Amino acid sequence: MAKQTKPSVEVFEVPCPDCGAMIKIDAATGHVISHTPAPRKRTFEDLETAAKAMRERDERAESIFRQSVDAEKNKADLLEKKFAEALRKAKDAPEGKPLREFDLD
After folding, report:
1. Which pLDDT score is estimated for 65?
2. How far, in Å, are 49, 64, 73, 76, 96 from residue 84 at the CA level?
3. CB proximity list for 29: less than 8 A, separation 6 or greater
4. Which of 4, 15, 57, 99, by CA, is between 20 and 30 Å from 34?
5. Using alpha carbons only, what angle is made at residue 63 by residues 60 and 67, rounded to the nearest 5 degrees?
6. Which DSSP category does 90 fall into?
7. In this structure, are residues 76 and 82 in contact, taking their beta carbons and an 8 Å threshold?
């Protein structure tokens, strides 16, 4: 009787080109066996740089907020001007029934 040998399982270990994670793939089935995430990269080198970035982000947010407040203050004037222009156009428009799409057929 011949001795049965267990088929060798070939596994490929491949680095992900996008995120750098290590992926183990079974050669026979093509399925992912395991996934090891890449080590996280530090966003900032030291605490001082992180604090500076936070201050800059807060200043940008404050600036955007001030711009939106100013726009809201001027909104009433802008709407008033748009209404006056629309009213002027309505007065200059010829009187009569407005045309509808099916009236043109």
Report:
1. 96
2. 52, 30, 18, 12, 21
3. none
4. 4
5. 140
6. H
7. no
| End-to-end CA, the chain | 93
The partner residues of 32 in beta bridges, in order of sequence, read 25
65's tokens: 């907020």
Distance CA 10, CA 28 (A): 7
pTM of the full predicted structure? 0.40
pLDDT digits (tens, 9 = 90+) for 7-19: 566 888 999 888 8
- % helix / strand / coil in the chain, to the nearest 5? 45, 15, 40
CA-nearest of 22, 33, 26 to 11 is: 26
